[in-house]
User: What shape does this take?
Amino acid sequence: GDSCDGNACESGGRPYGRTRSQSCLGGRRCGVERGCVTVQERVFDGFIASNQEVGGRLTAISQRNDLRARYSRAVIPQLVHGCAFATVMRKEDGTASIRFRTAEHAAALWDGENDRIEAGFVIVDSKKFNGDTQYQPCLVHMHTATALWVISRDSFGGEWVAVKMPHSMGRPMMEPLVYRASEEKPFGKSRITRPVMALTDS
Assistant: This one.
């Protein structure tokens, strides 16, 4: 299993990648229909670890979660909104599930003292309940420093049920992917300027 994934990362494993500039000329690929000329596309290539065993475990986790493809899909929302999020949870079989969430489906509070997320939540799933015409949240994950709360409901207007899943990471299992973060804006800022926003449907 991946019960020591956090320790593996702390033991010297770190992600590495590269950045390539790509022409856009107004295509939807960069998140806007017009006004975007170039975009920095970040490519996740894997992990670097000083310990061979740790490196092998991280590579297996990366491949099992298809991180290269998932990260690639998260880059554009990150540039559009200034931030996206990566979350980790343990599946029933004991392995780690890593997913990326856009700022449209996730939010977080920033802990300035510790320079990390203090707490955050993610809308994991939505569905149309009986008689409803729009999708409504039915599964939410709330991340804290000591637990993952799985919050769900099975009917529109029904009661939410929360299940606490404690962990020993000492921090929320949720990390921000930011574009040009600053002390004033730890969750980054959009690459799209306000004048360009006014010209697009994004």
User: Anything to note?
Assistant: The mean pLDDT is 80. The beta strands are 14-23, 38-48, 83-90, 96-102, 106-111, 116-127, 136-143, 147-152, 161-166, 174-178. Helices lie at 5-10, 52-64, 67-81, 194-197.
